[in-house]
Amino acid sequence: MRVPSSFHWRLALAYTVLMLVVLGSTSAYLITTDPPAGGIGRDVLAMVLAAVAAVTAGLALAAAFSRRAARSMQFVTEGAMRFAEGDLEHRIASPSRDEARDAADAFNQMAATFQDMVNDLSSERNRLSAVLDTMPDGVIVTSEDGTVELVNHAAGWLFDEPFQRELGVQLSNLVRNREVLQLVEDALASRHIRQVEFEIDEGRQYLSAIATPVSARGARSVVLTLHDLTRLRQVDTTRREFVSNVSHELRSPLAAIKALAETIHDGALEETDAARDFLRRIESEADRMTLLVNELLDLSRLQSGQVPVHLGPMDLATVVEDVKSRFDLQSGDKRLSLKTTLPSSLPYVMGDPDKLSQVLGNLVENSVKFTPDGGSIAISATAFNDSIEVRVADTGVGIAPEHLPHVFERFYKVDRSRREVGAGLGLAITKHLVQAHGGDIRVESRFGRGATFIFTLDRAS
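Predicted structure:
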């Protein structure tokens, strides 16, 4: 219970009045009484009066000091209450001369230390939150009863669900995959790390989940880490398909060469015309293998950035005319026509003449393979503010919608039954060459109505 400060003044006043009453009574007594011999009565009176005055002054001073100390302690108490209510910036003004100064200084030092600790913990929490929210792996911490204690954004991305950041929900409300829930239960039961790989979204996404049991202060929880394996699976699938495709493409010409050589060895060598035909076919199959190997090397160098592309201002019309002249010599008996439509004011582009000649050549050759007799191929260009758009269109068989996203992939063939259409590397090489120029390439087609390949180049400044 706090004593009001006015109490101390009332106490001092009471003591003073009491002393004055005593002093008055004593003085009256001594005055009305005959003094003893030698005048000792006046001396006694003086001593009594001095004593009374000293006691009265002492009591008044004690009351004043008591009031001041109570007021200082009241400031300390009020400061402690404000700090306890969350005002960590509050400090107590240290009294200059009283017994509460040490208490105030000690409180202020404690408050500063405590505030530093809170700031450090807050910084650590913010750093941990930033790391968890920016890391690509999903992290979910769940207690023994399945209550979610922590979850980051990546966990929601991996499961393709808008996770709520609210804590206290059940894990089964966030993760609806039975394999993951069973994994957490096994980790809690065995107290050992458990791992599983599973697929979601009908096999289009692959995830790895690791459940790590953690014990702290008698409570058990599980840290669930989720890692996306989709890209690794795609790379592994691509690698296996690549090996299979290369093996297939090399096996066919090798088998043909072996069969022709055995035929010659078995007696065809004596027949000059047949031997020459077989040798010509052997040479053709060897050329197929050489072309395949060269295309593989070109694609590998392009993907690794080892093919130098020397960009400079150049006239696109020169490259188009070169491709047209080659087409006229190589078109054969298919009776195809190649039309070029370039505006006379077409600006220069930033490009490598040899590489752009290869790009246009590959696109024209691709159109020749899939355009029937009597069809046509057209090369055109349009200038925009910062780029030039080049189109190679044909009147061929076109591309079905399901094949359009894959035409630029290695070894991808729209019609795998046609042996003469090549190994399926030309468009992949073309794509990388266009990208090396800083451009993009795409295809537009309707099945049975031809196809149009479109790529862009930067204008020369």
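Summary: The radius of gyration is 48 Å.
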